Every structure is written in structure tokens, then in C-alpha cells.
Amino acid sequence: MDIVLGTLQKLAKDGNRPHYAEDMKLLLDLLAIIGMNKEAFLGCINTSLPAREAGVLPSLVRRLFIHMAPELQEARVELEALVNKLFNLMIGICVEAPVDLINKMIADIIDQSKPYSLVGFAMRLIKGEERVEKAAGRLINSICWIAQQAAEGRSLAQMQLFARGPDGETPRIDVILEAVMDLLLPFLGPELRRPIYSVLEVLTDLYELSTDPAPNNFIKRAPFIAQGIATALCIPQHQVSGIFALAKGDWEKAVDLCKPFCDLDPQVLHEMMRFLPTIQKNCKSGVDLVKNIKEQVEEDYIKSRVKQISGNVVERKGTALDLFDLVDLDRNGTISLEEFRMCTLRLGFHLGEHRVLEVFSRCKKNVGSINRTDKGQELNAEEFQEALDYLQKKVAHITLSMIGNSLGYLMCKLVYLCFTLFLCCVFIFLAMNAFLSGGVFSAVVNSGLTISMGLSMAWKDAKDKSGGDDQRKMGALVEEIQDMVMNDQ
């Protein structure tokens, strides 16, 4: 087929028929495309030829522009050269030409310093409106930069399109989006474009921050995020910057934000920040912090209170309130059933369940309603004092009953002893008179005193011998009374 078409082309030229010769050349180019491979492409491409003739499809490109309007004939040469370059690049990519050759072809297309540059041609087409020119310039420069990076073998992730420049320049992706919006939405005024651009920049910075949430990256991007949010919301920048300053602990920059609410003293807050590392080592959240501080305060109070109670015990000045503070384990100002039962066990009392409930009901009933706790099964300090008094009275009453005594009997015995003491005083007075005056009466009195002294000494010896047995019997009786009182027998 190549031989036939080549022969026909030669005959057309010899017969002075250039039109048919061009048709044969076009068919040969189409056949070349069908069988094109890497080796054939490298054999056909010749960069030393003019731009409009170098490549594998010069005839096809010329045929595309043969019917151009007369007023565009001046641009025909440049257009043929640009389209020819683009066709060559597309075919080179399809046949996987060497990377160096592809990079050279791309640079030849976009480099404005070279003849027939696509960038220069595009800039001339949009020349006229300054805003469109600037947008197109930014878009073309960004695309050229991306093409250059791709030619060097970098992927999109390696290009870091979302990253700002070394001096905080706008990310490439934002430049491209802003340029596209300026070109496609020319009716948007600056009062609408600026907030939209700010939102795009904020989203870009947040995306970069999510990929690298390091503190240094946050510090680097925080000013741009604050500026973008302030511009998008049309609010003073210090309001947004103050929030970031509070997050970073920069109290000086947060003063303007906090002025409407409180008087912020940066020096005091810096002093407080000195203790945060120590606190953060001991707690993981605000709840832990409050809990640790509360426990520390309670621990200090308990230590001081125990020391005070110990001093009162040594001086024999202990009170029921001291005992109440020792029993109140959870420091809630009241004593529960379990705490009261534990207290009685430590005091040597083994109260039964019924006896404990009796004490609680009696104390809750007797204490006035002003200082009563709202918890039905707990005792406050006043009720605890009433409970101890009730137990003492109960033990005393049952003890007297068990030994055969009562309060009336003890009162009668007290009167009897007082009368006996009075008689002893009278006797002593009479004895003194007897010693002072001589006679039969004094002799009788002296003899009676001697006999009484001897009898009293003998009675004392007998009492000392039986004192041990009586003490053991009394101890057993006390234990029996205690069990009866505590267990409600």
C-alpha cells in the first residue's frame, strides 16, 4: 500500500497535479498513524525541521487549515506550528516515547522564549481585559509549573499543590481555582470573590493541617487560617486570632478578644501555665484535674484535723465532734448506717440491726428540723451526739436494773449517806469534847474509839480478800449487760 500510494504521489507531481499529490501524502500520513510505534515515531520525528513541518502529520495539519478565513491567514503559520507540536506530543505519549524527548516537546510548546509558543498565543487571544489577563496568566503559569513537575517524574502528591510557598505564598491549587472562577464567573464582584477565595484558602490550609497535625505545622498555618476566616466572615481579625492565641497559650494576643468579657492579666496566666506540665503528668482530663485537686485539699484537711484531734485526746479534751470527723469517711458531712456500725465496732459495741435502726429513729425524731439532714438514713453531727447520749443512757439504765438498783434507790442511798456523814461530824465533835475534859465519860469514849478502830481494820482486811471475786463478778455482769443492750435481748 505504501508503494502504491508513493507511486501515485510521484505521478501526481510529475503530471503537475499538486492537489492529488497532497491527497496521496495525506493518505500516507494516515497509514503511518495506523502502524505507528515507538521506533517508527523516533524515525519520523525530526526537530531540526521548522515547527510546522517537523513531526509525523505535517500534511494532515496543513489540510486542517486550508479553508481558513482570509482575515485569519496571518495566524495560519503559527497555528499550523502549534497544532503540529500538539499532535507530535500526543502521538509521542501514546507510543511511550522517551521521557527526555517528551519533556523537550512540552518545553518547546509552553516556553514563551521560543517561537510559536502556546502560552504566548493564548495570552494574545485574551488580551484586552486586565482581570481576565491576570487570571489567565496565573492559570497558565500554574499549569506550566505542574507540567514541568510532571516532566521531572513527580506525582501530584509530591507536587504538594495544597502547600504554601516558603514565604506563605498562596497554594497552587487555590491559584488555579481563583483563576478559573475569574474566567468562568466574570460577573462576580470583588465583594463576593474575596470571601469565596478566603474560604478556599482556609479549606486548603485545613486539609494540609489534617495531613500533618504537628504543632509546628499548626503554628505555621494558624495566621493564614485566622485571616481567611476573618475575611470570609467580615469580622475583625483579632477576634479569630484571639481564639487561636487562647489555644496556644499566647495570652498577650488574646487580650483583645477577652476585653468585652473580662480583664485578662497575661502575667498571671503565664504564672498559672508554669504549673500545667506538672498537672498534666498526673491527670488526663479536666475531670481528673478537679478530682485530684479536691482529693489533695481533702487530704490536707484530714491530716490537719487528725493532728488536732490527737492533740485534744492527749489533753483529754476530745469531743463527740472529733469522733464524728473520724467516722465520716466520705467527708460528706453525714454518717451513714455502715459508718455508724463501724464506729460502734471500734468502740467495742456490737450493735444488732434492730438496735441501730432504733438509735437512728430515736435521734432523727428528737433533733429539731432546722439542722436535720435531708437524707433519711444518715446522721449529721448533732444527731450523732444525740445517738451517743442515747447509748450512754441506755447502758446506764439497763446496768442499774441488772444489779438491782434504780434511780430512786440511788437517791435514797445518797440521802442516807449524807445523814450518816452528818452523824459522823456530830460524833467527832463530841469526841473532841471528851478528850478535852477528864472523867468517866472521856474514859468510856476513848475505849470505844479503840474498839471501833480495831473492828474497822478487821472489816477492811476481809473486804480486800473478797474484792477480787467481786470485781470478776462485776466484769462478767457488765459484759452480759452490754450484750443485752447492743443485741436487744
| CATH overall fold name of the domain at 317-402 | Recoverin, domain 1
The secondary-structure element order is HHHHHHHHHHHHHHHHHHEHHEHHH
Please report which band the strand proportion falls in: under 5%, 5-15%, 15-25%, 25-35%, 35-45% or over 45%.
Answer: under 5%
Instruction: Find the structural class using helix and strand composition.
Output: mainly alpha
Measured distance between first and last alpha carbons:
129 Å
Question: Could you list the spans in which at least 5 consecutive residues all have pLDDT below 50?
Answer: 368-374
CATH H-level homologous superfamily name of the domain at 317-402: EF-hand
Annotation field: number of helices: 23
Profile the largest sheet: 2 strands, antiparallel
| Rg (CA only) | 56 Å
Short description:
Helix content is 73%, strand content 1%.
What does this structure look like?
The chain is mainly α and 489 residues long. Among the domains are: 275-316; 317-402, Recoverin, domain 1, CATH 1.10.238; 407-487, no CATH class. The protein is built from 23 helices and two strands. GO terms for molecular function: calcium ion binding. InterPro entries: EF-hand-dom_pair, EF_Hand_1_Ca_BS, EF_hand_dom. This is EF-hand domain-containing protein. Residues 315-350 form the EF-hand domain.
